[in-house]
Amino acid sequence: MFNKDAKAYTHREPKEFNKFRAFFQWLTCSVVYGSYYRIACGLKIYGRENVPKDKFFIVASNHMSAIDPFLLVDAVGRPIAYMAKKELFEKPIGRFFLDLLGAFAVNREKLGVSTIKTALGIKKTKWVLGLFPQGTRETDGNMDNITRGFAGIAKTLKCDILPVAITGALKKDRKPFESKIVIRIGKPIPYNDDTKEMIKVWSDKIIRLSQGDADV
Fold it and tell me: Which pTM was predicted?
């Protein structure tokens, strides 16, 4: 059950997305995870020139593995405030770690007012918002289970969506010194009032990026 301690993490104030959490996230994701997977799995990142340097945006990636959030921080090079399913905050250890990383809890079935308020607060900081439109991990590359909420958030916040595709990160494929993880960052998708169109464009870009098309 979603207890009071966990529920407190559904709303975060802008001041909580501070330099300390940004440093802890960088240390964990870039120094630890990034270094390891570069050495052990030949991690390659393409399209960093597509990452906006001085504006707020939403990082929206396909989701294949539990390590995806860590890899994305290293790839994008900006501190990312992740929307994480509320169940991850129910255990004290997980809650403590997610708190340090700057994540906040959401109900995947229905985004609450606190989610929008937190996202609006993040927009006032140097962080960007991170989420996985597929909601849960899709190990077979399926693009059918796409939640519509991320396009609605982009419309509400009036911000672009940065499409990112991760390949080779499945646990069964991560064989040290044999496998290869590739992250491709596409060109930002401008927000507009047609959320269905934004979803279609994102889906198409993720498919093309996953297939190795870098010019999207």
Answer: 0.90
